[in-house]
Amino acid sequence: MKNVSKIIACYAADTSGVCSALYELGGMTVVHDASGCNSTYSTHDEPRWWDIKSNIYISALTELDAIMGNDEKLICDTVSAAKDKKPGFIAVCGSPMPMMTGVDFDAVAMEIESRSGVRTFPLHTNGTRSYIEGASEAFEAVVREYALPQERAKNGVNVLGLTPLDFPLGADRAVRDWLSENDFECVCTLAMGCTLEDIGKMASASVNLVVSSSGLAAARYLKEKYGIPFVCGVPFGLEFPYDLAGAMLRAIESGEDCYYSASHTPGNDLVIIGEGISATSLACAIEADRGVRSTVIAAQPIDEAMLGAGDVNITAEEDIERFLADRQPAAVIADPIYKYITPKGIKLIGIPHFAFSGRCYQKHMKNMINTDIKEILR
Amino acid sequence: MIKLALYGKGGIGKSTCTANLSAALASLGKRVIQIGCDPKADSTINLLHGEPVLPVMDYMRKFDEEPERIEQISKIGYGGVMCIETGGPTPGLGCAGRGIITTFNLLEQLELFERYKPDAVLYDVLGDVVCGGFAAPIREGYAAQVLIVTSGEKMALYAANNIYSAVKNFEDRSYAKVRGVILNRRNVENEEQKVRAFTEKAGIEITADIPRSADIIKYEDMGMTAVEGDPECEAARRFIDLAKTLISEDEKNE
What we know:
The complex is a heterodimer. By secondary structure, chain A is α/β, with parallel strands linked by helices. Helices cover 39% and strands 15% of the residues of chain A. Chain A has 3 domains: 14-129, Rossmann fold, CATH 3.40.50; 145-260, Rossmann fold (3-Layer(aba) Sandwich); 261-377, Nitrogenase molybdenum iron protein domain (Rossmann fold, 3-Layer(aba) Sandwich). In chain A, the strands form 3 sheets. Chain A has a 5-stranded parallel beta sheet, with helices on both faces. Chain A has a 4-stranded parallel beta sheet with strand order 2-1-3-4, sandwiched between helices. In chain A, strands 6-5-7-8 form a 4-stranded parallel beta sheet, with helices on both faces. In chain A, helix 2 (38-44) links the parallel strand 1 and strand 2. In chain A, helix 7 (131-146) runs parallel beside helix 10. Chain A is globular, with a radius of gyration of 21 Å. Chain B has one domain (2-253): P-loop containing nucleotide triphosphate hydrolases (Rossmann fold). In chain B, helix 1 packs across helix 10. Classes of the chains: A alpha/beta, B alpha/beta. The interface between A and B is medium-sized, with 12 and 16 residues.
């Protein structure tokens, strides 16, 4: 059966993507879902829960509310909580049950906004799609809402698509330091170490660095609205960050977008499985630092423009297993859980991916931004 | 663009009215899409000479995947009307309302309106507004107006009132508004008076008055609408008049 994971885990869902993307922005995220599910979005899929406060609510949807279409309870409870908490904004999103009963989140958001006076936007999650789709919609929504026209800053950069689902805690600091070393001015790191005020200034950037697929929709909006070009890539390793910085400077000059991490040379030495931009960036970093060539498997639905020649977008467990058996690479780089479908005789180098294995390997997650990856890949 | 949803009690003649109105709009040169929102999937059959289109839900059941092109789930009928049927799950199973929402999401993904650029979209919706799925056609971005089909029969008027109240409940949500009533006559006693009593109380109008007509039945037996079969017959002329009214209003709004 396609898309059923019999052995490996499944990736975090769209609802977790929304909660993660909006976590630090000072808003209130309300998930229309049964009581108890908050621990999935806010603890199992959220390492910041222990250190940073955030207003993430569950509507505690009951069977009877679902049957009766009792949107009024969701609306009243949200308005009441907003009066207490005074959030910067409210985001309402769904889960499988409201998907089945056809809750109209556009209309619900409209009613909450008119009763609370707080800007409210709907996010159309249903708990069955990828975290990338949820985070992507959330990022685009806040950027559409809060980015304001600004004077352009020379070498200003927005970093788009940062969430702990794809990056270890501290990744925002690492990318800021790297930007600073390369004489870029960091405007906004959407959305780790980021505020609504930072988002307001995003239009002052000269280039957007898209570090995960979750940031692409916001990048495309900023290109269309403010003419800011984007470059896709994560500055992993030692050599690749220099090349990436060069690509960003060229984009500022030309105004052209660039899927830079897709430029790695195809090869079967390694297969890297993961989120598209991170995985292709790692392929670039390994090629630049070690001269080893890789093929990437993007294991989530992805815009194929982000993939390099020979890379593939396959999401079903049995297809990934078959691909590895056919290719017979020397090693596979992926989350440690992939070892269970890695054919015998092929080495697995485990790099934990929080969106896939959650807290299981969290203590083994290491920053690879602007750093020597030799030890990590040993 | 004319964006209309037709609601009414089961068996009252919604599909007959919708198909004749689509045909009338098409005969006046308009580019029309008719979307049948009923698991029975028989809304557009009289625009297609009895050769039905493959409903969206049937496509998904058959191929176990979503269609990639509009052509896979549509057929062009009389006057160039694009015919689409949501269809539904196997009777007795699943959730028909959810099927309508899924179909609408899919049509949005396939950019139906952007690509086909219709002048009019008509939604023919099953029975009453029974759940969220059956309210989908009146949500923002779909139908802007609702026409309730009723006769002077008690139960038809009871259903019409329920539909009117349901739509009115959504006033704060930018949903469609009730435009009026299509009186589809069954020749019951004091029929017009009974329907007028309902419309006056609700503050809406009788937008069209369709006589009980043997022509409609005759042409339906031949797999076509009265508008196609004999545009000069009384029933067809009433639908053409309704189409002209809607076009003129739409032109004024634009």
